[in-house]
Design brief:
CATH architecture: Alpha-Beta Barrel
Radius of gyration: 17 Å
Enzyme class: oxidoreductase
GO molecular function: nucleotide binding; proline dehydrogenase activity
InterPro entries: FAD-linked_oxidoreductase-like, PRODH_bac_arc, Proline_DH_dom, Proline_oxidase
Keywords: FAD, Flavoprotein, Nucleotide-binding, Oxidoreductase, Proline metabolism
Shape: globular
Largest sheet: 8 strands, parallel, barrel
Helix content: 40-55%
Number of strands: 8
Protein name: proline dehydrogenase
Distance between the termini: 25 Å
Number of helices: 11
Strand content: 15-25%
Strand order of the largest sheet: 1-2-3-4-5-6-7-8
Oligomer: single chain
Order of helices and strands: HHEHEHEHEHEHEHEHEHH
């Protein structure tokens, strides 16, 4: 059983519980992005099994007529087994899923293979695939220029990993500055497909201002258990998605999220006390 403090951030251990969570969100105007917990598999059988689980999950969304999609991690569906394993499983998921498919971004040394796979599938499916990019990486400006005319969606996040300083911005103020710069570029240069992945009210406010100025469609994405009251309020006017982790590997996910950054621990404490 998932203890209460972790249960705030994980939608249960089973697909049925995760789908129930999406249904509850839909009733309040929020859509769901489902992520089965698991990553860094070195065994092809594990990667194949989670790829099949994602296909079943997508079928569950369609069967229950829920407003949601799925999000996969490259290392979960085979990247650490080999590029071929990742690409084969991603192709299988994209082909079978009757919903939008997000590809998460992981460590800095997986950026190129992830972008290549995203761009190929986004063009082949006329935009039914999305990818995450991290504002803390120094290369992200060039990445956004590359993706500006690509169909699909791009989720801009600040970045939860800790890449080396020579390839990344390490000061929070600098990451915030770059997030604003990149988000402004996206609203100016992207026709659509902008996903604002941030719990920072300053960034969601900026996105709303840029939308008013440029008219570019966008969506807001936040994690389960973080600023949920704001998610429901924003959903009254904008498209809002909640990123929903679930599965038996909840402990390692929760522990890592808290360990990675002090801000995550603060989010956890604030969520527990209801702010």
């Amino acid at each position: 059983m998932i203890p209460p403090i972790a249960n705030n951030f994980v939608a249960g251990e089973t697909a049925a519980e995760a789908l129930d969570h999406v249904e509850e969100l839909n009733a309040r105007g929020v859509k769901g992005i489902l992520n089965l917990l698991g990553e860094h598999y070195e065994d092809r059988a594990d990667a194949d099994a989670d790829a099949e689980a994602y296909i079943d999950l997508a079928e569950g969304l369609a069967r229950r007529d829920l407003d949601g999609c799925i999000s996969v991690k490259p290392s979960q569906i085979g990247l650490e087994v080999g590029d071929d394993a990742f690409e084969e499983n991603l192709a299988r998921i994209v082909e079978a899923a009757d919903c939008f498919v997000w590809v998460d971004m992981e460590d800095h040394d997986t950026v190129d293979v992830t972008l290549d796979a995203f761009e190929r599938h986004a063009r082949e499916t006329d935009g039914n695939v999305g990818v995450c990019v991290q504002a803390n990486l120094r290369r992200t400006g060039e990445t956004l220029e590359r993706l500006a005319d690509c169909p699909g969606k791009v989720r801009l996040v600040k970045g939860a990993y800790d890449p080396p300083a020579e390839i990344a911005y390490t000061e929070k103020s600098k990451v915030d500055e770059m997030y604003r710069e990149y988000l402004t570029y996206m609203f100016e240069e992207f026709d659509d497909g902008i996903a604002v992945g941030s719990h920072d009210p300053a960034m969601t406010d900026l996105a709303r201002e840029l939308h008013e100025e440029h008219g570019t469609p966008f969506e807001i994405q936040m994690l389960t258990g973080v600023r949920e009251s704001a998610q429901f309020e924003l959903a009254e006017e904008y498209e809002v998605y909640q990123y929903i982790p679930y599965g038996s590997k909840w402990f390692s996910y929760f522990y890592r999220r808290i360990r990675e950054r002090k801000q995550n621990a603060l989010f956890a404490l604030r969520a527990v006390v209801g702010s």
